Amino acid sequence: MLALNINEGKNSASAASAAGALYATLWVVLLAGTGLMAPGESRAQDNGGIQTSVAVDVVGTAGNSLSGDSGKLQVREAEVIFLAPIDQTFDGLLNFAAHQEQDGAFFEIHEAYVGSSRLIPRSRFRLGQFFLGIGRLNRFHRHDWPFVSAPKVQSDFFDEEGIVDSGLEYSWLLPSDFFLDLTLGVTNGWTFGHTHNQGERPKIPTHYARLETYLGLPSNGGMQLGVNYLGRTRADETKQAYLGLDLTAKWRQARRLSFLLQSEVWHRWLSPLGSETEKTLGLYVYPQVALSDAWYIGLRGDWFTVMSLQDAGGAGLTNGTLAAVPTLSWKPSEFSTFRAAYTGQSDYVDGASTVVHHTLELQATFIIGAHPAHDF
Amino acid sequence: MLFGKCKNTFAFLVVLALASGVGACSDDQGDLLFLNGVGYRVVNAGSLAHNNTNVTGTGSIVFNSPLSSIQSANSYALSFVLADGGSLVLVANSKDDVTNGAETRFSRSGSVLSVKFIVGGSETDVSSSFTSINASGTITLQVDVHNNESPAHVLAWTGSDFSEGAALVNSEDAGKEVPGNGSGTYWGLRLTDATVTSASVGAAKFSE
What we know:
Chain A is mainly β. Chain A is about 5% helix and about 55% strand. Chain A has helices spanning about 15-35, 150-160, and strands spanning about 50-65, 70-85, 90-100, 105-115, 125-130, 165-175, 180-185, 205-215, 220-235, 240-255, 255-270, 280-290, 295-305, 320-335, 335-350, 350-370. Chain A has a 16-stranded antiparallel β-barrel. In chain A, strand 8 (about 205-215) and strand 9 form a beta hairpin. Helices cover about 10% and strands about 45% of the residues of chain B. At the A-B interface, strand 8, strand 10, strand 11 and strand 12 of A face helix 1 of B.
């Protein structure tokens, strides 16, 4: 989750000075973009507390790609992020993103919200547009993932990156003798996933909950566990319900992430009006080891099945998708990452493989400026 | 402490799996027939006549193999002939009785082909996109129905260029929207004085 309070301890900027700095920063970014400034001058500047960063995600794909954009190297996304204290109580974040569509780059507001961790004891909230605070991948921008592309369970349930919506999210650190954090959220729910239309007013808006805990593990390890629920009833009265578990375990030696284990399992109930409920289960598991301070290798395994699938004669069908995604990463620093990944994916129905995908992906991500810190 | 957490996690996964279960089987439909090797069942026999290379007449059929899921994107290859006044409806993402689907209806009046997107009681007329097709001959189309978008996204082509620009119709264009989504995992055809010589489904030809 994006940290809003990274400037705590500094003098809070007034709204006026923050606005002035925002304009100044916008000019810096615009000038840099038009080539009127040398690249080095586009670095973020701390003008009264504003943190500015640019994150770029370049991806090249070869093979019979799942996304249909094989044989191209393209800027998948470019983001400009502004983050600052608004006053002594509130923080604000604005994130513009451009991403590739079939007919060119599409520029939009990715996230824009006001929040605070200082208004209510043991609490924090966000109001505006944001990635919903559920699961693991959904809480991170794609350029911060440990692999290149979304596992099938993520892309089928929550789109290629995650669910962004506008609403209110409230988190409460429970007064227990161990870490227990509860997040509740309600968002418009007019849309669910990537779209360029305004959607339709849902019967029941998107609502979600996440209960998260943390366990210390031997040898400088730690594990974050989350239990998640999300529900929504669309305008056409189709009910969507999701239940999920996410797990992230890390072991560090100094600054090196010596071992990472990240996994999510999600179950979806999809109930269109007048039709049978479709029950779907999917998961991914991604272990990654450090080869050195900068080199990492991991292997992601994906599995996905529609449990309620039957043929037109009423016979149940075993079916699913299996994928293996070995990924090699080179991280010279926190601000640049280069990856190579292969995806071998097979769809099967009743024991027979129906579609096989072989995809090679190359990725370069870099961050210029003060990228906000993530939680665990 | 750690063991307790792991146990709870395991219990959650077991509950998750048990709670979902597998849906009960419904009653069998009619006998399994084949059209160029693609299995289907008759929903409404009407006046349909069948052999291994075509289905002709009036009635409705559902294809035996389901789509991968309700919110899936698929591409349908169709080849058919319409009698004057006849029609063919491609019903995507329907129930197994070929209802509650995202429908694309092709109907013939002389040499003019009329096309409508229909969901529930709502319809959108997109006939103006099909004026280049002579409805009195064999009509061969590739139709993408992306029911994983809301509303469903439909594109149709006549050739082998499956780009957005080459599509005869793209329901993302203004005034050509599909009025909703299908709500099932089956697909089928409703024929009225029509002959279908080829019908198959595969992966969507176009992706965003």
